[in-house]
Write a structure and sequence with these properties.
The chain is α+β, with helices and mostly antiparallel strands. The chain is built from eleven helices and twelve strands. The strands form two sheets. Strands 1, 2, 3, 4, 5, 6 and 7 form a seven-stranded antiparallel β-sheet that branches.
């Protein structure tokens, strides 16, 4: 008898293990089907990673033959829940278009007893949505209108942190009770997709901010020189109007040319092109041209000197060195009211040194951020971008010296 009982218990244990194995195999098979369906949709629709969450939700809803699925985000600090996305009949819905859900959209944040219970205890199954106190009356009315009868809420966890919840809605009471283990297993895929989506959003925001910073820097640098040159020409023209109209017109023409150059530089900055001054010429030639333009029809005295044998640099190095020179010159004209500006580019075995010296009013170090803020910040950012060291020495009424020291690549 004892042996018979032992054999019977062993048989029951094998049966339980067999059922567990079948359940596990079913879960893994469903996960595989969801992933295959998602990947096929990405290939057929040529969708990128940003659509991964939409496609995962759609695949889960289809595989479970559910009424709809939705993702909520949770704020653990306040306990507020927000309906982010719903999938119904293969269509991902966001904002206010989520099946006319009363809490659709960002303004739908609310305290949820259902989610609070799911966070505390794990997945929550509601077999009859019309008779539960876990759902607010407005949600129950909405579900009855949608013919939804059952609901399974699974918390989405990233490590130990709850980041949201997955809701799967059914149209018959016993439907979700038999598939709860599948929903729980598939929720991991939703967490993965949700995390990827957020990372992509952060990356896009970061790229946007970097691009805005680049454009602001490019436009500021390119316009500073052109506008400063145009202002000087206009001032000279104004002084000559009463005595020499022909010469005044010449200076007005030079001002127009400077403004056209600024317009073209802005266009090139927007399209991330090389500075116009570097089209068809080297950096030393562009710096020499910069000094020449300053001398043309203005009271300024500008010069350029080249020391050593010039190297061929990358487009990025050329562009940033020229922009720093343009910014330093613009500051000397606009802020320091300089009358003499010297630009020097020196090449040695181990470094390249760009120096801009003016005889302007100079400034105290404490004034640099307020009076020269954007320009100096741009110069520093450009120097850091190419691995150079920027030095700015200035004394009141004694002028300013800007030095950029760039180690020779490979030296």
């Amino acid at each position: 008898m004892k042996l018979t009982a032992q054999l019977a218990e062993a048989g029951h244990e094998l049966d339980r293990e067999y059922k567990k194995r079948n359940v596990l195999e079913g879960v893994l098979r469903t996960q595989e089907q969801v992933l295959v369906r998602t990947l096929n949709s990405m290939l057929l629709k040529e969708s990128g990673p940003a659509k991964f969450l939409d496609l995962i939700l759609n695949a889960i809803t289809h595989e479970l033959d559910a009424h709809s699925s939705s993702v909520w985000s949770l704020d653990p600090a306040s306990g507020l829940a927000t309906l982010e996305k719903t999938v119904f009949n293969g269509n991902p819905l966001t904002g206010l278009s989520q099946l006319n859900h009363p809490l659709g959209g960002r303004q739908g944040k609310f305290k949820s007893r259902l989610f609070a219970k799911a966070v505390r205890e794990g997945p929550v199954l509601i077999e009859d949505v019309s008779r539960t106190s876990l759902l607010e009356p407005v949600i129950r009315r909405w579900m009855r209108a949608q013919k939804v009868t059952s609901l399974l809420c699974v918390p989405l966890r990233f490590g130990k942190k709850v980041v949201g919840a997955l809701n799967v809605r059914g149209v018959n009471g016993g439907f979700l009770a038999s598939k709860g283990h599948l929903v729980y297993a598939l929720s991991n895929l939703v967490t993965l997709a949700m995390t990827m989506s957020r990372l992509l959003e952060h990356e896009e925001q970061s790229v946007t901010l970097r691009e805005r910073s680049r454009l602001a820097s490019e436009i500021h640098d390119s316009l500073s020189q052109s506008l400063s040159a145009a202002v000087i020409q206009l001032e000279v023209a104004d002084d000559l109007l009463a005595t020499d109209a022909a010469e005044a017109r010449r200076h007005l023409s030079l001002a127009r040319s400077a403004l056209r150059l600024g317009k073209e530089e802005v266009r090139r900055s927007v399209w991330a092109m090389r500075p116009l001054a570097l089209e068809g010429q080297t950096l030393p030639e562009a710096l020499a041209q910069l000094a020449s333009h300053l001398n043309d029809g203005t009271p300024l005295g500008a010069s350029f000197a080249l020391r050593g044998k010039p190297r061929v640099l990358s487009a990025e190095l050329d562009s940033n060195l020229l922009r720093i020179a343009q910014e330093a010159v613009a500051n000397a004209i606009r802020h320091a009211h300089a009358t003499r500006i010297k630009i020097q580019l020196a090449h040695s075995a181990r470094k390249i040194k760009l120096t801009i010296v003016d005889d302007g009013e100079g400034f105290k170090t404490t004034q640099a951020r307020s009076n020269h803020g954007a320009g100096m910040a741009n110069m520093r950012q450009r120097a850091e971008r190419i691995g150079a060291r920027l030095s700015i020495l200035s004394r009141q009424r004694r002028g300013t010296r800007v030095t950029v020291t760039l180690p020779v690549p490979g030296a």
